[in-house]
Amino acid sequence: MSDDYKTGKVIENPDYVNVSKYVTMPKSVEYKLTGFVYKPEIKIYNASGSEVTANVDAKGNVSVAASGNSADMPSERKEEALNMAKIWDNFLTNDLSGSGHGLATVQQYLIEDSYYWNLAKDYASSADITFISDHTLSGNPYTGVTVDNYIEYNDDCYSCHIAFTKNMTLTAGGARKDVIDSTFYFVKYDGRWAIADMIATTK
Fold this sequence. Notes:
This protein is α+β, with helices and mostly antiparallel strands.
């Protein structure tokens, strides 16, 4: 479509607020077309030539959320992303070794001075982490592991949905489950992949 129809309005996907601090993310642009004699058939295609589903409101406004391209997730990338999510979860449940409750370990997979970097630093020095009930992890404690909805935005950013349940045996008796179910955004940072954001799945 010709740029002549652009209104100049640009809309940023709110899911990309944290990620767009580090990489350029897709944005929605507004076009205005008027004067049709008959109701037109609207088809919208992404940059790779695939048709995308559009939403049409009662006034006939057509909208499509800015996004990347769905693709098959390389197995090594899937393994790496899942490993980073597990390390983040292990940090939250005080299952990492080392000083600061394993702070240096989890920060290897975060962006320096980012929201999650500072969140981890604050959590490691807070009383909250010491309140985690003593527990053990037996065998492979992860069940219901899912890594799907892989989307590539550019060479330096991708996202995927990661879900799993970590089963912990409490030292005092009983059990506890910790559930991860979020869309993780990863960006290339300092020559490595790092977690840029985690948006909880809403059901």
